[in-house]
Design goal:
Blueprint lengths: L12 H8 L4 H17 L4 H14 L5 H11 L7 H8 L3 H10 L5 H10 L2 H8 L6 H8 L4 H9 L7 H11 L4 H7 L6 H10 L2 H11 L4 H7 L3 H10 L4 H13 L5 H9 L3 H12 L3 H9 L2 H10 L8 H20 L9 H14 L8 H14 L13
């Protein structure tokens, strides 16, 4: 019966000379495996480690593919591998490079990006599959424009993919149902990316988006009736980051989608920060100045602010009615204790009742019906659907 395996003898110059002196590629491959294994254990003396690094450098340039393949396979998990050797192996043929690119932690972002830009698709796959992928490397992978590479990256939850990269993916592959589907299945998504997804994915994917990213179920109903504006306001309501909300207002303004009905809907359901950011964009002023005119200057302040926008005059009364209610409830909602900072349904109900009084020809059951009829009557003109919902392009 065999006894316990003995540790191989320490690395010595004589031993290495003997191992490297063999003209057989197979024998040198075994040398590569042996030296790499001892090196990776991290138990060598300083002298032995320096000697081992010299040998690894020689093996990494060996003429026989088998030798370099053996070396790469045995050092792919080593945190002690010199980055220069790792980079050399990473730029080698696929059979040598792929284990290093997939597993080696000593390769930095610059090294990985240099491999990506060299254009080999198999190597790009290996990088996209790494346990962790930085935003910079993910951006570089997305910029290859290769669907298969992008799909591998999207499926990797260890990959951090920044918002610009995700927008690039949608720009490149929004007409390919498989790619948006993989985005829906990501653990987290930026608000603006979710906004784009809810407008382009299928009914089944919308349901998955709602469930996975905790979007309100009502969004799906509205989307199926072209009610994308309500979906946007719901996304905004669930977004606690002020900068994200302001950024979305800017994007909607730039794309021509910061519509009167969207702003009216926002104030009616208590999305005050978005309403303020949107009005400020339309009036081309700062949010602070806009708030001053909304809340501190009385009716004349808001009339002056409204006049700086291109909002339709027919809807001034609707915004005024909603703002009157907001001014009454705002001290509790906006400035009270944290537990009171919740928009209550009674606030919306009050606005609806007053809107009905102001526009007596409208007889709605809830705020959505009010907004739909107002949008159809005053905004969309011939753009309203037969059921009164607003088409948003």
């Amino acid at each position: 019966m065999l006894g316990p395996a003995k540790n191989p003898p320490a690395l010595t110059k004589e031993r290495i000379d003997r191992l490297l002196g063999d003209r057989s590629a197979h024998a040198r491959a075994e040398t590569a495996a042996s030296v790499a294994a001892e090196f990776s254990r991290g138990q060598l003396t300083d002298r032995e480690r320096a000697l081992a690094e010299s040998i690894l450098d020689i093996l990494a340039a060996d003429i026989a593919d088998e030798v370099r393949e053996s070396l790469a396979e045995h050092v792919k998990h080593s945190p002690l591998l010199p980055p220069s050797i790792a980079l050399r192996l990473a730029h080698d043929i696929e059979s040598v490079a792929l284990p290093i690119l997939r597993y080696s932690e000593v390769l930095g972002d610059d090294a990985l990006i240099s491999v990506i830009r060299a254009g080999n698709e198999s190597k790009q796959f290996a990088i996209a599959e790494r346990a962790t992928v930085s935003e910079e490397v993910s951006q570089s992978l997305v910029e290859t424009g290769r669907k298969n590479v992008v799909c591998v990256l999207l499926a990797n939850e260890g990959a951090r993919i920044g918002e610009p990269a995700l927008h690039r993916v949608l720009d490149d592959f929004d007409d390919d149902s498989g790619v948006p589907a993989m985005m829906v299945d990501r653990r987290t998504l930026p608000l603006a990316v979710s906004q784009r997804l809810v407008e382009i994915v299928s009914e089944s994917l919308r349901q998955r988006l709602i469930e996975r990213h905790q979007l309100p179920p009502a969004i799906a109903d509205e989307l199926s009736q072209h009610g994308r504006e309500r979906a946007i306001t719901q996304l905004i309501a669930d977004e606690p980051r002020v900068a994200e909300v302001e950024s979305m207002a800017g994007r909607l303004f730039a794309s021509g989608k910061l519509t009167p009905s969207l702003l009216l809907r926002a104030i009616c359901v208590g999305d005050l920060h978005f309403f303020e950011a949107g009005i400020a964009r339309l009036a081309q002023m700062t949010i602070d100045d806009c708030r001053s005119l909304l809340y501190e200057r009385g009716p004349l302040g808001f009339r002056g602010l409204y006049g700086k926008t291109d909002l339709p005059g027919e809807l001034f009364a609707a915004f005024r009615v909603a703002l009157d209610v907001v001014r009454v409830v705002r001290p509790d909602f906006d400035g009270g204790p944290r537990e009171k900072k919740v928009w209550k349904k009674v606030y919306t109900d009050t606005i609806v009742e007053r809107l009905v009084q102001e526009y007596r020809q409208v007889c709605p059951a809830d705020v959505e019906h009010v907004l739909s009829q107002l949008a159809r009557q005053f905004i969309s003109g011939d753009g309203g659907d037969a059921d009164g919902s607003l088409s948003v392009v």
